[in-house]
């Protein structure tokens, strides 16, 4: 600075040309900056005057030396960096990275100061001439002179990859040095980090994990292998947070996932003795959770797990419902289904994060195999019957509620819900009439469940049954209140008045009543019809019970049959129950054979004793339906379906007016699906019947079309 | 810094004392920021600390610059407001601010936040070429550009002219600032392009659309329209870009059937879409495009005199459909004698309506939420009766009116003045008028300034809001 005014003094030039005419202006100014930059790189900047340097650079730019200055700067900085490179290359072994790091820090500090000096150029010359800003120029030069120089590039990459390999093999490495080195690469711009480090890193990782997974899969069980994979994934993501770019996280994860999981997915899931099926069978929640979480990374991972699980459930379920051994005990049958359901509910809840798609798979699998056995509706109803009979005796009402809720789950899987309804009605009727319904609350709660599931129609008749019982009680009371004075000696009767239609139809087998009972019955009939006009009463004697006090003679079967007129099958069944059940032989039969002949005689077994005050004698016949009964129920159900199918057809045709055959089929099926799966042949028959009755007609031109006739 | 953060400067012989806190306002990326940074003030082992310890240990720095400008700039750092003494030329101050790296500070303090009702005339810049000024556009940083003929003259916020953008004799139709340093220009294709298109490029009849550097005037990118994978020459009309900054739109007219609105990706500059004009919608001739953020649609307006009837439509690019449209085709033909022609249109900022203006300076509104249709639908406010319009002298040239919205206010230019309408009912609240320059042919608001281009001599006025009062 001190030189310039002197020079000016010696020349006789107009003031405004002062600098232009100094041929050495640029060189002198540049020398000043050049020296200062050297001092900066030598950590000797304390003697420098920023103001002077800034002003010098300003003047150079102002006097149109911007491009020359830029050129010189590039040249000069490259020289300094080349010096640095020499000392970096000299770094041996572990010192190499440290030296590189030290020089990088130095360069950064120097670069900031150089940028400060040239700030004016950064603001004016560089944007108008589309040059790289000074700081970025410094980074580019570092990249090209050092990081990508032939001597450093390969060595840097090898060193980094080797350290990472060591760490993978369990050694402890200097992570902070790793971090600062990768940060340097990132500072040079993401392309540098990606091309010079990330890509080769991913390639090396890929072959590392490909080898490791080969090794593991040969010797590890599935659970063990997955543990390893999980550990590796955690390690890699920790590595990223420790010293790699956060964007690498996804990429390295996908490498590990591909090599360790995706490439071996089928083999792992289907692995014999340790794969998914074993985990399911043994309820290995932890392993299942791990498998679910790990395979989440692979698009086809969860679908595969799901389908293997579903086919396993279907398989075990099928063998369960088709096992003839299981058909012997309906309660156990349903209990096993419930256990199976509980098991998988737990697995999905605990290990599969309550994943909706898995729940759906579970449901459809159950739906599939439960309907493989057409007795499932009956058995489920029997199971409910069992629970509601014993009910509170075994468990409190809350537990019963949960059991009933679970049963409802099974009920939802049923295709033939109407069949269930039939059975449920029968079983409910028996419970109610024999007074074995343990808890009215539980009964009603079950009804509410069915109602919410299937709607009002489904349960209206069942509710009718409850109402009948209630009114019967009142009526009986009224009857006795009205007839208190006469016939004190007559036996007391309790009458249940059942509305025809609400209750399962009974084959009305009458029997001869004893005259005392007959008299009371007739009085009751007169009383009832007196208060209710236009009704008809029929006695269902086969459903009745009586307490009797009597003296018995020995009677032959034929005598009993003639006196009572009870149908032979029923009578025989009763007598067998009374005389042939071991330990409960109230009657003695002569001879003591199993079958009953006409001349067999029965008398009271005087030797019968019991600790109990009240002895219950079950009927010999099993709760389950016998084959002919089953056939009959099936026929009744089929018969009941006809009007429903017809109603559906009419509803559909009423709104559509004209429809082709196939569409009707699909729509009817869709409408009725909640209750049962209609048979296409039956639908077709119903359509024909409707055509005959002139609800529908075939289109005259297109025979496939049906028209609705209003 | 030592001594309670006090700092002393000797600027050109005059001593200033201030605090590091005040100087921190300059920022690290300024000359003063660097000067005080620790890396430049390291205690030396060999020599004593650089600032001489006179004056009670307060460090002192010498700066070889103009002291009176430094005083103004130091005051700016202290108070955040700019006070320029009358004797101090502005250009001198700007130059010094650039030296210290404080030019952005000066610009921010130079004028206040835009308010249409508090505008003052700040400058009047004489034009280059007489006549033919087509458009003026405000830059986001307070600069502007004026398109006339085959060139766009670019001014920085100090109103110094930069290197112009030259289009080699293609007529400029529209210009828009993508950002402070990037200018989009739409130009008409030359009719007789030289050497009969032997260049094979297909795009070189001039014209079309391109991005230029607003700093250096260089061509940065040329936007192409391709049909059947071949770039076609075209005339670009109006320009717009969307709020998210992802797409650039232009109305295009090719030589064959390439009429419509072109869409380009802003990041890559590649053509992303082309909306061919359906029958009855003159999209290729559009005079005005405007992106509506709320509706995610582009408003297209084709106006008199370029097209005989006014057509306004909203284009939905996702559905590839005209979501709403209006035209005055039947109203113009009706025998009511009501020959109100829509001459300009602007979508209101709430995106619910479009404001239009006719030759009598009446404002009208079209509801975008109702169906458009033809003819009626415009709710006219017959302002013309209330306005004392300047009666044109014979031979005096008039200009078509223009509309703009900004910050909830509505602006319209008519003849030699700009009217400002405010409030929910858009009441006339201010009029900007100047005695010379003739009618206003275009105006633009941006960078907290309003620029109005006059028809005569291409002079343009700069209106800005003064900084807020002291108390």
Automatic annotation (TrEMBL), chain A:
Residues 375-571 form the Cullin family profile domain. It holds the Pfam family Cullin. SMART domains: CULLIN, Cullin_Nedd8. It comes from the Eukaryota. InterPro entries: Cullin, Cullin-like_AB, Cullin_homology, Cullin_homology_sf, Cullin_N, Cullin_neddylation_domain, Cullin_repeat-like_dom_sf, WH-like_DNA-bd_sf. Gene3D superfamilies: Cullin Repeats, Cullin, Chain C, Domain 2, Ring Box Chain A, domain 5, Winged helix-like DNA-binding domain superfamily/Winged helix DNA-binding domain. GO terms for molecular function: ubiquitin protein ligase binding. Belongs to the cullin family. This is Cullin family profile domain-containing protein. It comes from Eleusine coracana subsp. coracana. The gene is ga30611.
TrEMBL record, chain B:
It comes from the Eukaryota. InterPro entries: Beta_prop_At2g24240, BTB/POZ_dom, Quino_amine_DH_bsu, SKP1/BTB/POZ_sf, T1-type_BTB, WD40/YVTN_repeat-like_dom_sf. Pathway: Protein modification; protein ubiquitination. It holds the Pfam family BTB_2. CDD domains: BTB_POZ_KCTD-like. GO terms for biological process: protein homooligomerization. Residues 5-118 form the BTB domain. This is BTB domain-containing protein.
């Amino acid at each position: 600075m001190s030189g310039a005014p002197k020079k000016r003094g010696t020349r006789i030039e107009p003031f405004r040309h002062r600098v232009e005419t100094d041929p050495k202006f640029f060189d002198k100014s540049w020398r000043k900056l050049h020296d200062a930059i050297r001092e900066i790189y030598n950590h000797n900047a304390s003697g420098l005057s920023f103001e002077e340097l800034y002003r010098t650079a300003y003047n150079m730019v102002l006097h149109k030396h911007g491009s020359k200055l830029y050129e010189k700067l590039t040249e000069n900085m490259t020289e300094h960096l080349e010096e640095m490179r020499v000392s970096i290359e000299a770094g041996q072994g572990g010192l190499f990275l440290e030296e590189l790091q030290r020089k990088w820090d130095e360069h950064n500090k120097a670069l900031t100061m150089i940028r400060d000096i040239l700030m004016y150029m950064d603001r004016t010359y560089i944007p108008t001439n589309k040059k790289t800003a000074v700081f970025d120029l410094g980074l580019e030069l570092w990249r090209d002179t050092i990081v990508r120089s032939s001597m450093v590039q390969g060595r840097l990459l090898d060193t980094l990859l080797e350290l990472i390999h060591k760490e993978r093999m369990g050694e402890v490495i200097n992570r902070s040095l790793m971090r600062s080195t990768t940060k340097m690469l990132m500072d040079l711009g993401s392309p540098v980090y990606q091309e010079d480090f990330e890509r080769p890193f991913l390639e090396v990782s890929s072959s590392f994990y490909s080898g490791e997974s080969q090794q593991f899969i040969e010797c590890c069980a599935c659970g063990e292998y997955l543990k390893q994979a999980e550990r590796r994934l955690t390690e890699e993501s920790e590595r990223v947070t420790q010293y790699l770019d956060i964007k690498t996280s996804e990429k390295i994860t996908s490498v590990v996932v591909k090599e360790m999981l995706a490439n071996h997915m089928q083999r792992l899931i289907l692995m014999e003795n340790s794969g998914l099926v074993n985990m399911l069978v043994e309820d290995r929640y932890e392993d299942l959770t791990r498998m679910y979480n790990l395979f989440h990374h692979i698009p086809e991972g969860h679908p595969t797990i799901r389908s293997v699980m579903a086919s396993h459930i279907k398989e075990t379920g099928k063998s369960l419902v088709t096992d003839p051994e299981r058909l012997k005990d309906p309660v156990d049958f349903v209990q096993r289904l419930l256990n199976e359901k509980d098991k998988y509910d737990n697995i999905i809840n605990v290990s599969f994060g309550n994943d909706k798609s898995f729940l759906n798979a579970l449901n459809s699998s159950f739906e599939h195999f439960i309907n493989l056995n057409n007795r499932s509706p009956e058995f489920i109803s029997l199971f409910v019957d069992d629970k509601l009979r014993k009910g509170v005796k075994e468990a409190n009402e809350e537990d019963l509620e949960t059991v009933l809720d679970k049963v409802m789950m099974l009920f939802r899987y049923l295709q033939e819900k109407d069949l269930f309804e039939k059975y449920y009605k029968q079983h409910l009727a028996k419970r109610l009439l024999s007074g074995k319904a343990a808890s009215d609350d539980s009964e009603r709660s079950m009804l509410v469940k069915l109602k919410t599931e299937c709607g009002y129609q489904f349960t209206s008749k069942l509710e009718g049954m409850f109402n009948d019982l209630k009114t019967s009680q009142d009526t009986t009371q009224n009857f006795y209140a009205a007839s208190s004075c006469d016939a004190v000696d007559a036996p007391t009767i309790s009458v249940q008045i059942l509305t025809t239609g609400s209750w399962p139809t009974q084959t009305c087998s009458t029997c001869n009543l004893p005259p005392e009972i007959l008299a009371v019955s007739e009085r009751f009939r007169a009383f009832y019809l007196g208060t209710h006009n236009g009704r008809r009463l029929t006695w269902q004697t086969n459903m009745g019970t009586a307490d009797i006090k009597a003296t018995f003679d020995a009677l032959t079967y034929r005598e009993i049959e003639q006196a009572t007129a009870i149908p032979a099958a029923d009578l025989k069944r009763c007598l067998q129950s009374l005389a042939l059940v071991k330990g409960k032989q109230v009657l003695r039969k002569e001879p003591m054979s199993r079958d009953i002949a006409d001349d067999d005689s029965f008398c009271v077994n005087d030797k019968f004793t019991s600790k109990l005050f009240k002895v219950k004698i079950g009927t010999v016949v099993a709760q389950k339906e016998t084959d002919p009964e089953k056939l009959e129920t099936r026929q009744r159900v089929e018969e009941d379906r006809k009007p429903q199918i017809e109603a559906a057809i009419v509803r559909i045709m009423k709104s559509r007016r004209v429809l082709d055959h196939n569409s009707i089929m699909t729509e009817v099926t869709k409408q009725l699906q909640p209750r049962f799966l209609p048979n296409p042949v039956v639908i077709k028959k119903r359509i024909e019947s409707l055509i005959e009755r002139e609800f529908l007609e075939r289109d005259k031109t297109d025979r496939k079309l049906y028209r609705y006739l209003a | 810094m030592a001594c309670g953060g006090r700092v002393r400067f000797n600027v050109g012989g005059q001593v200033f004392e201030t605090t590091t806190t005040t100087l921190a306002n300059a920022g690290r990326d300024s000359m003063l920021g660097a000067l005080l940074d620790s890396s430049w003030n390291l205690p030396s082992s060999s020599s004593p600390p650089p600032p001489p310890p006179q004056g009670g240990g307060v460090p002192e720095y010498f700066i070889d610059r103009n002291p009176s400008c430094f005083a103004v700039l130091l005051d700016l750092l202290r108070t955040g407001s700019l006070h320029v003494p009358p004797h101090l030329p502005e250009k001198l101050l700007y130059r010094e601010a650039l030296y210290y790296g404080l030019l952005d500070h000066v610009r921010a303090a130079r004028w206040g936040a835009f308010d249409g009702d508090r505008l003052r005339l700040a400058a009047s810049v004489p034009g280059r070429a007489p006549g033919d000024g087509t458009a003026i556009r405000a830059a986001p940083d307070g600069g502007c550009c004026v398109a006339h003929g085959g060139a766009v003259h670019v001014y920085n916020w100090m109103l110094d002219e930069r290197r112009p953008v030259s289009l080699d004799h293609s007529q400029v139709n529209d210009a828009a600032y993508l950002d402070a340093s990037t200018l989009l220009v739409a130009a008409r294709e030359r009719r007789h392009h030289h050497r009969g298109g032997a260049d094979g490029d297909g795009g070189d009849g001039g014209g079309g659309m391109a991005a230029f550097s607003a700093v250096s005037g260089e061509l940065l990118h040329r936007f192409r329209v391709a049909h059947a994978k071949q770039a076609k020459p075209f005339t670009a009309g109006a320009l717009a870009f969307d709020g998210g900054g992802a797409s650039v739109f232009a109305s295009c007219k090719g030589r064959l059937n390439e009429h419509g609105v072109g869409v380009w990706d802003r990041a890559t500059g590649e053509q992303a879409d082309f909306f061919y004009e359906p029958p009855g919608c003159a999209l290729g001739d559009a005079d005005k495009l405007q992106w509506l953020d709320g509706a995610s649609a582009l408003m297209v307006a084709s106006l008199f005199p370029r097209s005989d009837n006014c057509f306004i439509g909203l284009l939905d690019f996702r559905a590839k459909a005209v979501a709403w449209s209006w035209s005055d085709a039947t109203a113009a033909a009706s025998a009511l004698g009501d020959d109100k022609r829509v001459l300009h249109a602007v979508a209101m900022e709430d995106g619910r309506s479009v404001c239009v203006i006719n030759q009598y300076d009446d404002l009208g509104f079209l509801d975008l939420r109702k169906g458009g249709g033809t003819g009626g639908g415009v709710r006219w406010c017959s302002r013309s009766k209330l306005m004392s319009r300047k009666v044109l002298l014979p031979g005096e040239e008039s200009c078509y009116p223009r509309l703009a919205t900004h910050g909830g206010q509505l602006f319209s230019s008519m003849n030699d003045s700009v009217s400002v309408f405010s409030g929910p009912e858009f009441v006339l609240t201010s009029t900007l008028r100047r005695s010379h320059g003739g009618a206003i042919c275009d105006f633009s608001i941006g960078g907290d300034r309003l620029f109005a281009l006059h028809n005569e001599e291409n002079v343009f006025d700069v209106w800005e809001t003064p900084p807020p009062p002291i108390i």
